[in-house]
Design brief:
mainly alpha, single chain
Length: 142
Amino acid sequence: MVHFLGVICVLILFFISLIHVYWAFGGTLWVNAVIPTKTANEKAMNPPKLLTFVVAMVISGFAVIYAEKIQFFTLSSMPTWLKEYGLYVVASIFLIRAIGDFKYVGFFKKVKATEFAINDTKYFSPLCLFLGVVGLLIVFLR
């Protein structure tokens, strides 16, 4: 069961990475629903395309860490420390992102009435919680 959930995590992360690549190359689908906003019309940030591409690569890296840990494939070139501790770090990042007490993101965020905040509560934070919990399950049950 943990292997199956790990494969689901890998697929989700690669899909999210592909969406970020799409945005980095100028795509606009869904972009307004996923950028944190201070008010209904005021973005909290306007990430440059290069940063969006970097985020895509980082998320792809997270997917590779999950995939390697569930032995979906083996990378002999991956550093030992990353194989041993990488999923702890990635799962912790997702859990902190979901549960953390931040201004725009997480279950305990301060700004709650914008389109992004509603989407974050319904989709993004639960997804981060899922990725974090499954990551820890993979680490502890393998």
